[in-house]
Amino acid sequence: MRNPRDIIKRPVISERSMGLLEENKYTFYVDPKANKLEIKHAIQELFNVTVVNVNTMNVKGKTKRVGRFVGKTPNRKKAIVTLKEGDKIEVFEGV
Fold it and tell me: What are the structural domain ranges in the chain?
């Protein structure tokens, strides 16, 4: 297994992800090559919680334009992690 800090990149702070906190679901950007089992073990090891379910999605990068120059934002992988009832991740509680 890889290092958990290489798998979990950063939390997603958005209006939708904050709404999911009420259902005990947390959203993270993860390594695009990580599978659901690796994500589950990384979250459990980093935050000492019990993961019930992991849903993943690949987010395609958008095309951006500045004047005549065209670029693209990077592709990302997002994971929505459902925790056992009663478990919380303290990183999100202050937001």
Answer: 4-85
Question: Which residue in the block uniquely carries the two structure tokens 């259902």?
Answer: 23
Q: 10 Å Cβ neighbour count for 16?
A: 9
Homologous superfamily (CATH) of 4-85 is RRM (RNA recognition motif) domain (3.30.70.330)
* Average pLDDT, rounded, for the chain: 93
Mean pLDDT of 75-90: 94
pLDDT at 57 over 80: yes
| pLDDT computed for residue 90 by the predictor | 82
Cα–Cα distance for residue pair 70/15, rounded to 1 Å: 28
The answer to whether 38 and 56 have CB atoms below 8 angstroms apart is no
78 vs 66: CA distance, rounded Å: 27
